[in-house]
Amino acid sequence: MSIAKAYDVAHVRFRAPDLAKMRAFLLDFGMVDSVPEQPKGQLFMRGTGRAPFLHSTEQGEPGFAALGIWVRDLADLERLAAHDGVPVETFDAPGGGFVVRLSDPDGFVIEAIAEQRPLPANERTLPFPDVWNHGGTYPRVARFRRVKQGPSHVQRLGHCVFGVTNFRRSEQWYKERFGFVTSDEIQPEPGIAIGAFLRADRGDEPCDHHTIFLFERPGAPAQFMHSAFEVADIDDLMAGHDHLREAGWHAHWGVGRHILGSQVFDYWNDPFGHEIEHWTDGDQLKAADGGGIVGFRELLGGQWGPPNPVLAEFVK
Q: H/E/C letters for each residue in 172-202?
């Protein structure tokens, strides 16, 4: 039994020297302001889902600051706090609630959150388009698909990826505290595990294929690798891709479809080098669906789309 049970990732926090430039990028990426007037030295941005904010930036040297994880309730926070010897604090951010701040084995700050007020329903304006026509099935008759040009519509944070220095140590830490279960373990050689896609244990309620991915790269330091945000659908992702490109932001990898998780992806870099992903149409699993063991090609390859820029380094 774990100390607490994660339900989902809630937000990511960063530091950057120019908050106006970060805000300009995130608006083009498909987020909106979480508050009418941003606090001095901070930036809070949200999507169209339940989270009152998804992305936070504070003034400072560029870097990753924290990952937020929703747990079930205040009792979960109290157990985490007692186990790690840290306080339960009032969460001073949009939505309020309570937070326990933990430090994982590589020093990444994890903010466990409970009782945060969700975004009001009347502010959740995700424009789901009409149904799709597929070969042999045509539910959309005399209705025309016209994709709105402009930024994608970010709904929520889907997952975060960390480069860790000792995979088994990090895996134990996250499973012990948050009850994550393995969807796919990465073994470049039989019996040698260097990473895993982990998902929240929601029992019979489906969950994304991965909520967090831990990846040990031999000799590499601990590193934030990327955060990933769900958008409305493939049309919305492609419209956002064109918008970001025309705005002059830096494309990293995509558009393509992953093997593990199956999501259609599009990776970008924010103005300060942090990798950030749009995704849609990912796999959903229940706790009882278990997991698998895969190699580098499944991890870094794709079902279609441009080749991964780092694939050759790992499989040569």
A: HHHHHHHCCEEEEEECCECCECCEEEEECCC
Beta-carbon contacts of residue 62 (< 8 Å; ≥ 6 apart): 14, 15, 16, 17, 272, 273, 274
pLDDT (tens digit, 0 to 9) for every residue of the chain, 316 residues total?
A: 899 999 999 999 999 999 999 999 999 999 999 999 999 999 999 999 999 999 999 999 999 999 999 999 999 999 999 999 999 999 999 999 999 999 999 999 999 999 999 999 888 877 767 889 999 999 999 999 889 899 999 999 999 999 999 999 999 999 999 999 999 999 999 999 999 999 999 999 999 999 999 999 989 999 999 999 999 999 999 999 999 999 999 999 999 999 999 999 999 999 999 999 999 999 999 999 999 999 988 998 999 999 988 765 555 4
Yes or no: say if 237 and 152 are a contact pair by the CB < 8 Å rule: yes
Computed from CA positions of residues 241, 93, 117, 177, in that sequence, does the dihedral angle turn out positive or negative? Answer: positive
Of the chain, the end-to-end C-alpha distance in Å amounts to: 41
DSSP state of 316: -
Q: Name residue 16's beta-bridge partners.
A: 59
Q: What is the DSSP letter of 111?
A: E
Measure CA 254 to chain center: 17
| Gap between the Cα atoms of 11 and 67, Å rounded | 6
Q: Which domains does the chain have, with CATH numbers?
A: 6-118+153-315 (3.10.180.10)
- Largest Cα separation within the chain, whole Å, is 62
